Amino acid sequence: MDTQNIRLTSTEIGGLWTTYIQDSATICFLQYFKHHTKDKEILSIVKDTLSVSQRHIDRINQIFEKEQFPVPNAFSEKDYSLSTPPLFYDLFALSFIYGLSRISMPTYGNITSTVARLDIVNFFSECIVDSKNLYQKALNLMLSKGIYDRPPKISYPKEVAFVSDKAYVGHIIGSKRPLNVLELTELFFQIEQNYFGSILLTAFLQTVKDEKIKKYFKKGKKLTEKIISLSNEILLDDGFHGNIPVSMEITDSTDAPFSDKLMLYIINSLNSSGINYLGHAISRSSRKDLSSRYIRLLPDLLTYSEDGLDLLIERSWLEQPPQSIDRNKLIDQEK
Predict the structure, then answer these.
(1) What per-residue confidence (pLDDT) applies to 242?
(2) How far is residue 214's CA from residue 230's CA, in Å, rounded to a whole number?
(3) What is the pLDDT of residue 331?
(4) Do domains 10-144 and 166-314 have the same CATH topology?
(5) What is the C-alpha separation between 276 and 284, in angstroms, rounded?
(6) Residue 335's pLDDT is what?
(7) CA-CA distances (angstroms) from residue 239 to 56, 170, 187, 225, 248?
(8) 252 CB contacts (<8 Å, ≥6 apart)?
(9) How buried is 329 (Cβ within 10 angstroms: 0-12 exposed, 13-18 middle, 19+ buried)?
(10) 16 - beta bridge partners?
(11) Does pTM surpass 0.85?
(12) Class for domain 166-314, per CATH?
């Protein structure tokens, strides 16, 4: 199909614009990991991921230039330094790629379902495959190094069962049925994602000098700890072992390798993903006590997101997404 005369839709622009910003930020971290990583197996996957992100950037550049659409400023070599001592041990680079690809797969799937122009559909379809391949590589390497914490296991049921009692959904307070596999999945990955966020926040707190941003990171770390504690408490109450991190993966360096702008962006992006995952957990949890606990967490995450946006706006770091024309303003404009 000839796409030459088909203008990009708002969803296509939004997907491309967001991907460009995210990949430019990712490249900053990957360049840093590439410079410091000593483990050859981890370095190999860092290079693969960097190549994928750079390819995405180049392709979006081509599309925007052809459409005569402004390319975002995003992030660049100004937002990271290779001259500082290592802030992370090698294993964190692997954890970063694992976490990144886990978030990217559903994100690209969602974008692909909202675009129609053939070249854009093909691009985001390729992005899905890229993320899947990186996830598999990262997962296999984590398994081989013995650092992947597998989700909880259950005894196999002997037969198919149907819910016959409304007590299945339970009550907010009182006796509860055992967790089902859908609920266990959400709890496990709530813990995993928040451990990842907690590690990043701890590293950023060691290096950030701006007191307002430091206060914001401290608030975020307390929030991740709250979610981890809550999720582990539910697992323990149901007879499962709580999940614990393999290691903190952070050195004792206090020199900042990343700009305040980049650190703020990454944490705000992770919080946005956290809101999305929490909404998904609510939709998948049949037990009333679980959905109730998740719902009570949402205001904390939404407030934290607003605080992060306020900091970005105060410092003129928040790049405005493309927006539609204010028709009312044009109509009311004096001739």
Answers:
(1) 67
(2) 24
(3) 84
(4) yes
(5) 13
(6) 54
(7) 45, 18, 14, 21, 26
(8) 206
(9) exposed
(10) none
(11) yes
(12) mainly alpha
Mean pLDDT by 10 residues, the chain (335 residues): 76 97 98 97 98 98 96 96 96 95 95 97 98 97 91 92 83 75 93 93 96 97 94 89 68 96 96 92 91 93 96 96 85 72
Amino acid identity of 305? S
What is the residue whose two structure tokens read 């109509």? Answer: 331
- What is the sign of the dihedral through the CA atoms of 278, 279, 281 and 286? positive
C-beta contacts of 194-198 below 8 A and 24+ residues apart: 194/224, 194/225, 194/227, 194/228, 194/231, 194/274, 195/224, 195/228, 195/243, 195/245, 196/95, 196/99, 196/270, 197/224, 197/267, 197/270, 197/271, 197/274, 198/224, 198/225, 198/228, 198/245
Q: Give yes or no for a contact between 195 and 99, defined as CB atoms under 8 angstroms apart.
A: no
- Give me 133's structure tokens: 């391949």
Residue 169, pLDDT score: 77
Q: Give pLDDT, residue 50.
A: 98
CA 33 to mean position of chain CA atoms? 18
Q: How many CA atoms lie within 13 A of 239 on its CB side?
A: 7
pLDDT of residue 244: 61
Q: CB–CB of 98/46 below 8 Å?
A: no
CB-based contact 201:267 (threshold 8 Å): yes
Place of tokens 């650092």: 147
Q: How far apart are the first and last CA of the chain?
A: 43
Domain boundaries, the chain: 10-144, 166-314
- DSSP per residue over 263-279, as a string? HHHHHHHHHHHHHHHHH
State which CATH number among 3.90.1170.20, 1.20.1260.10, 1.10.10.10, 3.30.70.100 fits the domain covering 10-144: 1.20.1260.10
What does the block give as tokens for 246?
Answer: 């393999």
User: Cβ neighbours of residue 312 under 8 Å, at least 6 residues apart?
Assistant: 261, 264, 265, 268, 318
